[in-house]
Amino acid sequence: MQSPDRPIAQSPNPSSNRLITQLPDDLNAFIARLPKVELHLHLEGSIRPQTLRELAEGKSWLKGKVADWIGERTRESYRYGSFPKFLAAFGLVSLLLEGPEDYALITTRLQEWLAEQNVRYAEITLSAGVILWKKQSVEATFEAIAAAAEEAEDRCGVRVAWIFDGVRQFGVDHVRQVLGFAGRFRSHGVVAFGIGGDEARGPAALFTDLYREARDMGLHVTAHAGEAVGPASIRAAVELLGAERIGHGLTAAQDPAVMALLRERRIPLEVCPTSNVSTGLLARFQDHPLPKFLDAGLAVTLNSDDPAMFGTSLQREFELAAAHFHLSNRQIGDLSEEAIRAAFLPADRQQALLTELRLAAQAAEIPGTSLGPQA
Ligand code: ADE
Ligand code: ZN
Fold it and tell me: Structural domain of residue 213, as residue ranges?
């Protein structure tokens, strides 16, 4: 149960572990046991230092680059100073991936990490647009990823599905190619199509036709929106693109009409608070409007975005949110439930995850929760 005097972190520094050690043991244990679902997680942003070192094994030309990369992240405490600087860093880490085997390795290591956090299902974003930009083969890369994912699913018990992401500032023709690949691999685990990158340099209106085509292909559609740009971008993603979920949606808090739109249409937000601190969009974790979103009745899911680039994990985002926003166990469970309901999964798989969650809630004796004993 929530302790009323739960201590709050003095520092929002995502690389600091102080907050976690201050949390009551029962809360940490509850979060650790909670079956979790992650919906906003970039494969290329999930490469931890040990995996980078593994990638560089036997490749003398990569060793120095990897050491520089790790050193810089540590020195800068996983902060990038500005959103464009973060995007540049994302491009750089993607360049360390030289071919399909590298993508396969990072997929395996990500699933193992998710298993450690009791993440039961994840929709992982692959920046297919970045693979095109590097002039690598999207087909060969995704075939290697899918084979690695299948092996890790059986071994670790973490099911995954894929979202192919286009880079919006690269323009419509580029993003159209990404959509083509998403459609082609739809029967091989790609459930959705989305756009990421620089919202300011690739407004939603450019992609209206592409999103219609994506829906016609039977793909789900998402979009990063209201991350580094104001709430009008969220409205455009909903009204012009038909986005079924919004990546971040941070600036919705600035416009009550956009909040109302999200509530009325039940569009879930994939919030990623540590990401927003690391990319310089928020000064501190506790400045995230997550509590305001919950109070307004929005569907909120909690996510780690590019966890290795931000020194976080989904487990840690739950711990930080619980501590900074004084969330009760019930509210923590509700975040997990929203993610299950917002997942692009068939109804029977959603029900199975909801049952798992209900059992975990019962074991933790959460009273009066929507997750409590079934009627
Ligand atoms: N690509 C990887 N992470 C991203 C983010 N947080 N926003 C936009 N594009 C991204
Ligand atoms: Zn993202």
Answer: 18-363
